[in-house]
């Protein structure tokens, strides 16, 4: 009850920010604001919603933005809007389908061929499917897009991030956009093979499982980066409940009256992007890694999401699966 009241009132936490803080507010005093050359950030899911707002605000702070997109026309529209506000913003559009291993490989090849550094990777894109769908790799669509796609993307770009951090002395940052809905997943239901190819399907549970997997991914990769003494951090964030396309997809099982009441608790897009932007740019989270943030402050995730053994097991199974599939391509 106390946390709910704090959220509704927008009371600031230890960071000085809270649920009502906007992305622009939390990036006014960025750790990287005085650098002689621009940072480079890749932001998935930046053609709408909090991804587009994240791209806009980071561009406003002088960051070079790479937008991977399945729909390049939508991406071009976002680029146009950002450059109207920030004419000097450098925005590069590249094609990707995060549900496809082959497409992710092509994107990474295309990006790396540009010869750019990579300082920030924001794994923001999210897919919610009410009905059971499968990717071209024959994997349940939400799991393929939200978790496996971002896992592979991170793996293929991690070398460039570690290299950039080593050469420039600028800390690399990876942000996994998760959700508080990860708390809905019980340990008995969290089975890797069932997530790949479920025999029965619940769209909300499938989505929640991917968001749990995003946190576990951040936890295990953080451990590995610390062991390597790499100057790269990875954290996961809950953006809050934002009125985006994901919410519209959920309306099939939310009554109009409940949706109206829930809408009073929704964040604006700029408030929803705040925690992502805070973790990506704030000097206050330098050296912080493997943590979970909500409302621009460290927060508690579920016991399952905090389980280091579970995180390592999921990592190993994911790595093995992707290796097998990539060998077949």
TrEMBL record:
Oxidoreductase found in the keyword field: yes
InterPro entries to which the protein is assigned, alphabetical: NAD(P)-bd_dom_sf (IPR036291), SDR_fam (IPR002347)
Name of a matching Pfam family: adh_short
Keywords: Oxidoreductase
Superkingdom in the source lineage: Eukaryota
GO molecular function, one term: oxidoreductase activity
Classification via PANTHER family: NAD(P)-BINDING ROSSMANN-FOLD SUPERFAMILY PROTEIN, RETINOL DEHYDROGENASE
Similarity comment: family membership: Belongs to the short-chain dehydrogenases/reductases (SDR) family.
Descriptive protein name: NAD(P)-binding Rossmann-fold superfamily protein
Native species: Abeliophyllum distichum
